[in-house]
Amino acid sequence: MVIYKNSTINKKFKRSVIAIGNFDGLHLGHQKVLKEAKRRAKKYNLKLGVITFEPVPVMFFNKMIKNHRINNAAQKIQYLKKLKVDFIYVIKFNKKFSNLSPKKFIKKFIYNNLNCKFIFVSKNFRFGKNRTGNIETLNEYSSSFSYKLIITKPLKNNKNILSSTVIRKKIMKGEMDKVRSCLGRPWCIEGVVIKGEQRGRLIGFPTCNLKLNNYIVPRLGVYSVEVSVSKYKKRGIANIGYRPTFKGSDLLLEVNIFGIQANLYKKPMKVSFIKFLRPEKKFNDINQLKIQIQKDIIKAKK
Hints:
The chain is α/β, with parallel strands linked by helices. Helices cover about 30% and strands about 25% of the residues.
């Protein structure tokens, strides 16, 4: 799989099948679109490409939105690779790009840079300055710029249309079973282990700490998790919150990994959320906290 971040696209990827979108989460609805696009590419012996945008447009336009993403940029590329996309065109979403008219976007990125043969988008796709472009706009210019537009039908989950917005709401409620059924995999956070205050070690439950960065904030509390770090793949428990017992002020993900004593500081880590165990709580003293953590571990191991 080839990743492009500029307009110099290899000619072997011209006249391809292209799917366009933010693809935050790469949920089952996104996967359905890409599978349909892949079938079309195979039928006509064409390459399959994806146009996506970084940063996520809503975060570009509203700087106050800090925690929004279901997956980070690296995860999105990783998931697309697993879906056997031939190439990805990552367009930098900045002020200059946001001011392009819909026609200029089509002419520059779809026609001049790619000259694609088929375009797959969802019916609610918006683009161009002030989001004035839509599927009608794409249809209007399809003959002028020699592509065929395919509008994909949305995937439904329990009679509701599956979307990244729906999944974010489920994550915020801690409904990890439902999130997994929407994504086709557990929701996970990836990051580098940072140095904490080492209170967990002092009370007998050492933790690895991660910052959430731009990830959507799940329901605060304790979760059963699966952790991949270094050569290890282990179960554990994770607390996400402000550590009220210790009067913490920064939002942090703390993970106690079962059966690991190694120093994992500065190691990349993937934390997959399996099940919500309990809300975050302030305890009167350290002993109460230790007793509760032991209960959490027993519950997580079931």
